[in-house]
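[step 3/7] fold_predict: job queued, chain A
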Amino acid sequence: MRAPMKATVLLAVMVLASFTVVSAQYFEPAVFINLDEATGLDADLNIPDEGPVDLTFPIRFINVDANRTAISNGFKFASTGCTFGAVTGQWNPNFPWDWPHAIALGIFPPYFDQGLFLNEFENGVGFAGLTGASGSGLPADFNGVAYTVSVAGVDGAPNDGLTLDSSWWAPANYWLWSGVAENVYWGGPYDLIVAGGPPPPPYTTCWPQPTILKALENDKILNVAIHNEVIADVVFASILVQGKIPPYTAGAPYVDGDSIVTDCFIMRFLGSSGFRPIPPEGVQDQYTVEYDKVGGEHVVLTGDYVLSVYQGDVTLDGLVNAEDVVFMSQYLWHSGPMCEIQEFMDIDANGRVDIRDLQTLIEITGL
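[step 4/7] structure written:
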């Protein structure tokens, strides 16, 4: 049913309100958003050290499984030493985003017949589209550069930095993508440095972040990467996570582009790291990856680790629903199996698994 015009206008106003910088989450993505190569960078993909330069970032959408009838995304720049001017945006004219684009291309219907929006705000820009009765929405098989984000007059000394990251309008905690909620993959933040200085120090990241413990028969591996290190100087056999966990798979560690990637079994990572038992609010902590260098130096890097927990998800399917209630009931009264992560059965977090946990689960699910 078509929304009343007043509701449509209100949504448009909300979409174009002020944006707040954050990092998007990764969780079985149905939409991927990342950068094609920016224009204005040097051959090493750094900001040239030759005075103010203008940079343009093509933002690519890959839409996986359904048309998207409403979208809204924002992007914002932050600097560590760099100065920069106006931030602007432009929709790619090669797609029938709205009626003017569709008419110019002779392609019908447009994706967003109710309106296409562009909102330039301090150090950033937002894009939005709304579909009504006659628009198709963003097609399920869309794979292309949707728009560009440009920043003028970037300048700085060697090793000064500029970061492009996602942003959205307060108080929401995810980009607006109809039908997908939080499971939108954002490839950033994207960090750039001004050329000419010494190389930045090595650092580590782990993936997926946040980690969500679900479907452990498929999602058992945590990948840990080492960046900004001279690959030939690293003794691969010495790489350990949390001081004692070697790679889980036979092919790790391996080289991925300019980085080294190792991996570990997620349950061993949790068990040997001090992250167990896992509290209902999840874990926000740090991990280490260490290695030896050919010259004898021993390096220890520290990174941030976030584990998200769905209270009551005893079936580990990423949902909290009637199936979890059945699972708990089978365990309590019919000798059913225990959750692979046993403390998840202690839903009320009182140190015991009993009927009160089932009562808490029923309250959470609203059954």
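[step 5/7] annotate
Residues 1-27 have pLDDT under 50 and may be disordered.
The longest strand covers residues 143-154.
exit 0
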